[in-house]
Amino acid sequence: MDCATFSSWLENRDTYDLSEADRAMKHAVQCAKCKDLLQKDEELDRFVAKMFQYEMMDKRMYGKIDRSLGESGRKRGIKGGLAAAVAMVAVVALFFAFTPSPGSFSSMDEFGRYIVQEHQNHGRITPLFEKIDNVEGWGRDNLHKSFKVNTLPAGNLKIVGGRICTIKDCEFAHLLYQDGKEIYSLFVVSEGEIGFNLEPGRMYSLTVAGVELHVWQKQKMVYALTS
Amino acid sequence: MVTLRRVDKKRFKELTYPHLEFLYNVALKYSGNKYDAEDLVQETMVTAYSKFQQLRDDKSCRAWLFTILRNHFLKERKQLLRRPYLDDGSSYLDYIRDEKSSGFVDRIVEKDANKKLHRVLAKISEKFKSPLILYYMEEMTYQEIAEYLDIPIGTVMSRLARGKRYLKKGLLQPSSRKINKGKIVQMMGLVMQL
Lengths: 227, 194
Ligand SMILES: [Zn+2]
Ligand SMILES: [Zn+2]
Prior knowledge:
By secondary structure, chain A is of the alpha+beta class. Chain A is built from eight helices and six strands.
């Protein structure tokens, strides 16, 4: 074996059989250059393997998955009367088990930053967004809060879907609306969770990272719409 | 019927949750960011739960979940694949041939190696990426990879060889911003991102 053949073997090691590896090793024993190359390739390989090591998963994932399993189970269960009753009990139990952690955001600015980031990361139609026919019913079942979305401060928006998202430990309803090709995110969260006060009925507008955000409060809920 | 559903869910969780870290890390290598990886895992688990009765053998649960995740990735994220890797035929060995002694990898592959890994992986098509993930992350044999991906072992070997070449070259290549400065290159960078 010569040096060129050795290089080609080294680059394609996975495709050669053991007899070729034998010949390559014999060459490497006699050829300092190729031996050096082999060692460096092995060092590179170890480095790559190290980069592929596991990264920690956010432990909240278990809860998120629990919840999404519960939702699909509930949808199926509702077909039977008894199942529906059980599901109702489950919803009520969840309602009481859920203890809000008040004061997640220190200011409107911080709230806006998180909201816009969430919109940029999630604000597109994926299968995790459930189709919604009735926003209020969906909100009751999933956010366990009653809220109403009447008129939105932007054009001709049609609801596409929704999911529950956790932002800074607060549970939000993340609703997607569509106007032509444009996708809008509407976030709905319980007033007690956000940690700063809004004047009821007043429309707040702010721009974060080029995204315009409208925030308002109605009854006990806070709404934020991107545009 | 309700009770049955409940037991199912308990069994489903017992079987599948031990593989969540694995799924998450595969998803992370597929998508390159935490957000999409979490979504991908969540989608996978919802699908797996709805198809739970299709899992015949508990022992194959990990491979079954992997397949569902991979299918989700292929279905939704394919259009997101950035400009695919273009092989110019040169060898990655050329980058290390003249390097002195050990420790050279740290010198070449800048500080933020993890970001660079994701950037390089994003350009490698799934065909090569999946064998790479199973090989480096899970330390699987060719045979095991072949079973996971349901492809012949010879195909695994050649895809792995090519994938390794792309990956190593991508890691060793200086990032374009570093070697070239100036407007023309910046414009090219823009085009590449499109
Ligand atoms: Zn030689
Ligand atoms: Zn979201």
